[in-house]
From TrEMBL, chains A, B:
InterPro entries: Arg_biosynth_ArgJ (IPR002813), ArgJ-like_dom_sf (IPR016117), ArgJ_beta_C (IPR042195)
Biological function: Catalyzes two activities which are involved in the cyclic version of arginine biosynthesis: the synthesis of N-acetylglutamate from glutamate and acetyl-CoA as the acetyl donor, and of ornithine by transacetylation between N(2)-acetylornithine and glutamate.
Subunit structure comment from the entry: Heterotetramer of two alpha and two beta chains.
Enzyme class: transferase
Keyword hit for Acyltransferase: yes
Catalytic activity, reaction form: L-glutamate + acetyl-CoA = N-acetyl-L-glutamate + CoA + H(+); N(2)-acetyl-L-ornithine + L-glutamate = N-acetyl-L-glutamate + L-ornithine
Localization in the cell: Cytoplasm
EC numbers for this chain: 2.3.1.35, 2.3.1.1
Amino-acid biosynthesis recorded as keyword: yes
Taxonomy of the source species: Bacteria, Pseudomonadati, Pseudomonadota, Gammaproteobacteria, Moraxellales
Protein's recorded name: Arginine biosynthesis bifunctional protein ArgJ
Length: 406, 406
């Protein structure tokens, strides 16, 4: 079960974005496992993708196509990741685009393919192709929930975020979905996330907005430290709600868009952690007082990846020695442990490198039993700060991943 | 339960090494949780220690003492790591040495302290001191098994290795013990390991032998990727079995000693993995065909640390896509995935970056059900090679670490 409030919000329609889906039986029957996005002509689209060297065939194809033109269509299947599938996998990803392009009467390079699911098996291309027409036939502007549901794998809940905002008297919508629960430690993007707005934003700024916001959202979450082969995040601006195109950072509307997008991306990223495989706790790890952001990030990830910290939190055991050990093993140079302070929410557990004098196990345990908690570390040697989001490590993580293919 | 054969061998007496133990009730009653080693005068001793920035008080003290002189005594307690304990922890580690030195009539700097157990609690110094005399009174040359048992924490079995070897007609013994099951991803040494020989070896060569052999043994194992605050490994050569001191690498006896020590260290390191918390499988990860050893090591650890690979092996599921993903996320530059071959023992699962044509799930599953298996990766771009040892990730790992302090 996901941790905290993960309910889908009202998913505002984004003018210029239509979504269709179909049952293609990629892996399991009776589910709408094929999703198609259609963007209106003139939509500016940006994408970031996994840095895993074994990145999947659809990632290769999507990157190549995105470099040629703004895409008009996204085609997403769940159940099969089309990764580790060699040349045939590349062909299948390309053929999916060709087939959809024929039906939709666009160029194949105007289609981006996405896949998520089991690695190392070939796509059932014929079944997938048969689903393309029904998916296109079902295109509608109000199917974000269907899309969020359609792309789920081990997710227990669909994930969405949506807001409206006003610029110069015009109301715009921004809506996005994400999926992912395991193999989550994105490096550039999460497994799959799609966000769109009907605000008018230049291609260059769409790319910049995506890069900036991904860095503090999807690039700051971890479930198990395993970077997926298929991570992709797409941001599209259709411009169809009207207004002049935002082309410059100096445009007064830019910071508003940035703020909304940052909030939506953070929510979508956190939803993945809240639904992390076997998660029973949502944990925010903030490291401040560092010399630079990188060392704060390294230590935050060292804590967030430590199986010992994660199992202690699962057990609601304030075994804070494990947090210290995780700080110490992060490989940060010349760390003066006697300057380090550690808090669990408002309870200081470690003062100047040792146990805080007024710390009690009861106070620590009170925080540890909460479904949501923050581990705050102050390195006492600077002003840099960074935050990472993670979940605990439970029996169910092992169960889910030991059973996933059976 | 530990994986494979972990039985204690006959532990050969090492002339010049005596071991005593006592019940000091550091944490749990009714166990000999305090162990003392005595080395004969003239014994050359070397040590390597954790690189965790939060290294424990006894590690600080041991390093300082070892820099001053060859130690005559080691004093080891289990149940409490004396880590994250600030200035009082340092005092307690030093006082332990002072007290033992008084009783044994040596200098305090001739005593090295070691602690293992829970982090962040102060040593029960009084109880510990009370155990020192009975421990010294019980010194005997035939108590290696007692020592191996005395230093256990979450270990399910004592760990030892012992060999005899002949140099120039003289028979020498080399015997060692280790402990550790969780918080295991040593970086310079494991949690605790003590090895001694009665061969005559110069101080400089004792240090060199330790460094060289640790690199391919304790520095190549991982249970959970968590580097302990207390990792220490000690190698002592008493010289009491006779013969001229070995001072040069060119000495014909040096490679013989190196070979025996390498074998003993490897065995002691592997025993820790075999007894890894919750382990049901012993896994050798070998990466070859690399440009240099570092990239082979990085990829081997990336596989060995992947919770997804480890849970798949626990489930005996040949979900080899997870192995590819772990290779890809290791951060090795310019990896050509189309040159990568992967085997599970003799079964080739991945050929040229995709599924091997003749691979069958049945063949993969056959290997995965074995209690011991090798993952072999060929990067196809050089001649370098490295090997890491690990275990699977099971329900019991979570159980042990969620329950450890209760």
């Amino acid at each position: 079960m996901a941790v905290g409030d993960v309910t889908m919000p009202h998913m505002h329609v984004v003018q210029g974005v239509k979504i269709g889906s179909a049952e293609a039986y990629v892996r399991y029957p009776n589910r709408r496992d094929l999703v198609v996005f259609e963007f209106a002509k003139g939509t500016n689209v940006a994408g970031v993708f996994t840095q895993n060297a074994f990145c999947a065939a659809p990632v290769h194809v999507s990157k190549a196509h995105l470099a040629q033109a703004n895409p008009r269509y996204l085609v997403i299947n769940t159940g099969n990741a089309n990764a580790g599938t060699g040349k045939l996998g590349m062909q299948n990803a390309q053929l999916t685009c060709v087939k959809l392009a024929e039906l939709a009467q666009v160029e194949a390079f105007e289609v981006l393919p996405f896949s998520t699911g089991v690695i190392g098996e070939q796509l059932p291309l014929q079944r997938l192709e048969q689903g393309l027409k029904p998916a296109l036939d079902s295109l509608t502007d109000d199917a974000w929930l269907d899309a969020a549901t359609g792309i789920m794998t081990t997710d227990t809940t669909p994930k969405g975020a949506s807001e409206q905002f006003e610029l110069d008297g015009i109301t715009y919508s921004m809506t996005g979905i994400s999926k992912g629960a395991g193999m989550i430690r994105p490096n550039m993007a999460t497994m799959l996330s799609f966000v769109a707005t009907d605000a008018p934003i230049s291609k260059q700024l769409v790319e910049q907005l995506l890069k900036v916001t991904v860095e503090q959202s999807f690039n700051r979450i971890t479930v198990d430290g395993d970077t997926s082969t298929n991570d992709s995040c797409i941001f599209a601006a259709t411009g169809l709600a009207g207004g002049d195109e935002i082309r410059e950072i100096g445009d007064a509307r830019y910071p508003v868009v940035l703020e909304v997008l940052a909030r939506i991306m953070k929510r979508l990223a956190q939803l993945i952690v809240r639904d992390g495989e076997g998660a029973t706790k949502f944990i925010t790890v903030t490291v401040e007082g560092g010399q630079d952001t990188q060392e704060c990030c390294d230590i935050a990830y060292s804590i967030a990846h430590s199986p010992l910290v994660k199992t202690a939190i699962f057990a609601s055991d304030p075994n804070w020695g494990r947090i210290l050990a995780a700080i110490g093993k992060a490989g940060v140079k010349d760390l003066d442990v006697e300057k380090i302070q550690v808090w669990l929410d408002d309870v200081q557990i470690c003062k100047d490198g040792g146990a805080a004098a007024d710390y009690t196990e009861e106070a620590g345990a009170r925080v540890m039993t909460q479904p949501e908690l923050t581990i705050l570390v102050d390195l006492g040697r600077g002003t840099a700060k960074d935050t990472v989001y993670t979940c605990d490590l439970s029996y169910d993580y092992v169960k889910i991943n030991a059973d996933y293919r059976s």
